[in-house]
Amino acid sequence: MKFFTEVFVTLLVIIDPAGTVPLFLGLTRGRSARTRHKLAWQAAAVAFGVIVVFALFGQTILHYLGVGLPALEGAGGLLLLLVALELLTGKSSEPTSEERARTNVAFVPLGTPLLAGPGGIVATMLFARQVHNFGHALALALAIVAVFVVIWLAMRFSTVIQRVLTDNGVELLTRISGLLLAAISVQLIATAVLAFAKQA
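The structure corresponding to this sequence follows.
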């Protein structure tokens, strides 16, 4: 139970479902409620799949590619920075019909790197290294499932939050989220640079 709580709380804080709501609304603006509901479960499913894969095979994948955790953080930081700039400038708020048909924000950037980002991936990999028996494995699996159920619920009912906040409120939260996301991305890049400097 202690390990479950530790994993659940840590991943919940890192992934931040509440902070995901304005990002989700901003990235899916102009789409129907039905499409948003579909994108919500798709994003949660994609992120869940990415987290599970890295929990099981993360160390093996990185070792095979010759990539360290700092490189993963740096790459994630750059991707998040691009998304943050779109939110700050409003570029992603009015997708055209052609863009909607061509792209699926549930995969990128919602599924990854926003939900299954460097922080969540690294944390999951570290927790996976602490698994030494079936009880710990079960606790880790249940915690990951619980976190993504919460995330799905937050995005699934984001339209209710939108009605409460109104379009102006969502616009404000989107810009603030973009700013915070930019700060997070810069921090990830800085952390990666410092890690590389220590290795040199």
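DSSP finds nine helices and no strands in the chain.
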